[in-house]
Amino acid sequence: MVGAFFSYGFGSARTYANNVEQRETKMKFSDIKFNQTKMPKGIQALFNFGDKYELSIVKNTSSYGNANGLYEIAVFQGNEQIELPGVTEEGDTVKGFLTEEDVLGIIKKMQFASGDMSPKQVALAQ
Questions:
Q1: Cis-peptide into 119, omega within 30 deg
Q2: Is 3 contained in some domain?
Q3: pLDDT tens, 18-41?
Q4: Which domain holds residue 38?
Q5: Total structural domains in the chain?
């Protein structure tokens, strides 16, 4: 099956993988700019993935994993908080207890799900 995919002009698997890797954002966790939140008390960052999705990353007094220094994410489409296969679990719109590496992995999944390899961080209203 993979051979058929690449026989339609996409080149070798190695060339395809290299092209995808070059388009990916090489984000480090330290690149994420978190804003302080008052209610609930903690931090939050927002990313837009084109016009399709928005990703909220939080660590606050109410988030899943906060007591362990971990993060929680939620995916939005428009004003709706949504499930996104591969990012959130079926029947759930948030995912908690995430390490910094987990959050970076979710950002990478969001890049592929949206087709936007350069997500834009959104400034939060104070």
A1: no
A2: no
A3: 444 545 557 899 999 999 999 999
A4: 27-122
A5: 1
